[in-house]
Amino acid sequence: MSSDKPNKPNAAEIISRPAHTVSRDNISDAALKVLYRLKKGGYQGYLVGGSVRDLLLKKSPKDFDVATDATPDEVHKLFRNSRVIGRRFRLVHVRFGREIIEVATFRSSADPDNDDHDHEVSEGTGRVLRDNVYGTLEDDVWRRDFTANALYYNIADFSIRDCVDGVADIKQRTLRMLGDPETRYREDPVRMLRAARFAAKLEFTIHPDTAEPLPRLAELLRDVPPARLFDEFCKIFQSGHALEGFRHLRQFRLFRHLYPETAQWLDEGVEKNHPERLEFIEQALRNTDERVAEGRPVTPMFLVGVFLWGPMTHDARRLQEAEGYTELQAGNIAADSLVQRTNDIVFMPKRFSYPMREMLQLQPKFNRTKGKRAMSMLGHPRFRAAYDLMLLRQILGEVDATTADWWTEIQTKPEAEQARAFGAAKAAKEDAENAARRRPRRRRRKT
Ligand code: ATP
Ligand code: MG
Predict the structure, then answer these.
(1) What one-character-per-residue DSSP string does 219-283 give?
(2) 91: phi then psi, degrees, rounded to nearest 5
(3) If you compute the radius of gyration of the chain from its CA atoms, what whole number of angstroms results?
(4) Ligand 1 in reach of 282 Cβ (< 6 A)
């Protein structure tokens, strides 16, 4: 470490228990068990990262991560319910029912790939494991990203180790990158998205030095594997602070490297005086945040569908005009190629992209409110999501209030009334009669 670092760690400041607010009452039993057993085994045990930060902020942590001087094998020996994971850097997962405590050995490596927890390969695959670079707590501090994420809660005396003035930054609600921001973003460009995410989620101000390189280095996101970008996208947009996260991504010119065609569609909205485009997207994000606040489930496919809707209809219209495709054909072709282009940047697994395609494809069908086919919409597994998107499309002026209300009301009616409203009562009755008349078919026997 060069000595001109703005926040080079000196001797760790130790904040004793009476001087801070992290209480064991708010630490999960599972995390406490892990920490106490490490201590009993003669090792150091610290709670680290987001959990300490969140406890200082009086928020409830999403999960608890532990750091120790015990090696992964030593940790594994202490816990029967544990698994050593990690391809390049080995970690231990200790499982208690549905809760997993991640235990990492202090290390000095600054290799960002080591943080790629989501692509772990179990040790049992016979892969040659690279030597680990273990270190001390003071070394470990430096692989962290922000000062707020680099605090260590010591189970031995319940004090907090703060080598980087992280507690002061938390108090001032400042997000500050450790070390030289540009270097740290270049090491791992995902840290730029993390900056946007934490600023939104914690309602922190990004320190000017930490913010300055963002628009300049945004294009480094191109080098990040598309699957990792999707993971990070999900974290931002499911955090309950999707709208703020989106605004930060736009402010720092990061969004255009995730969904470039959406960014372009929005830019064009500004040029051509279509403010409703931004409102359409921001309202979707607002709805997502509300759902999270109410504890209702959210799926990333909905928001990606909202992002792609504008560019998709734009392309589809062009195809219809220039190539003479029908509305349905043009929509399908446009959606296919847009999803492909998007997946090259932010890869959305099929379990999301399939339902998203269905949700998009259902849109033109809301124009028809008569007949059996229209009625069958109600039973479609993607009806609910498609309906929500249709409501939002009112903002774009694509759906009128009468149609939207019609679909809202129809859902509250009993089935017989629904059939009448769709003008499908007669057809439904005939169906029922046919079914009753149909003789049970004899099963053909194999000879
Ligand atoms: P959350 O509340 O979203 O879980 P978190 O701070 O716990 O926030 P994680 O992604 O769970 O974030 O990572 C745990 C810790 O690991 C972070 O607090 C940080 O110290 C470190 N870390 C994670 N990813 C990176 C990264 N890309 N670069 C540097 N440090 C990282
Ligand atoms: Mg975490």
Answers:
(1) GGGGGS-HHHHHHHHHHHHTSS-HHHHHHHHHHTT-GGGTSHHHHHHHHHHHHTT-THHHHHHHH
(2) -130, 165
(3) 27
(4) no
Residue tagged 């231990």 (tokens): 92
The answer to whether residues 147 and 206 touch, using CB atoms and an 8 Å cutoff, is: no
Q: What's the whole-model pTM score?
A: 0.88
Domain ranges of the chain: 1-172
Q: Which two tokens stand for residue 376?
A: 């069958």
Ligand 1 site, residue 116, Cβ cutoff 6 A? no
pLDDT digits (tens, 9 = 90+) for 129-172: 444 589 999 999 999 999 999 999 999 999 999 999 999 999 99
Task: Give residue 49 CA to ligand 1 midpoint distance, Å.
Answer: 6
pLDDT digits (tens, 9 = 90+) for 65-76: 999 999 999 999
Fold of 1-172: Beta Polymerase; domain 2 (3.30.460)
Range with the lowest mean pLDDT among 94-98, 194-198, 421-425? 421-425
From residue 443, how far is each of 292, 438, 440 by CA, in Å? Answer: 50, 15, 9
- Within 10 Å of residue 247's Cβ, how many Cβ atoms? 17
401 contact partners, CB below 8 Å, separation of at least 6: 394
Query: Whose C-alpha lies nearest to ligand 1, atom 27?
Result: 191
Per-residue pLDDT tens over the stretch 200-229: 999 999 999 999 999 999 999 999 999 999
Phi and psi based region of residue 17 (left: phi greater than 0; alpha: psi -120 to 50; beta: remaining):
alpha
Q: Active-site residue among 54, 69, 145, 231? A: 145
190 pocket-lining for ligand 1 (C-beta < 6 Å)? yes
Amino acid at 153: Y
**Between the CA of residue 217 and those of 193, 210, 271, 305, 435, what are the distances in Å?**
11, 12, 25, 27, 65
What confidence category does residue 61 fall into, taking pLDDT thresholds of 50, 70 and 90?
A: very high
The mean pLDDT value of the chain amounts to: 90
> Tokens in use for 63?
């999960």
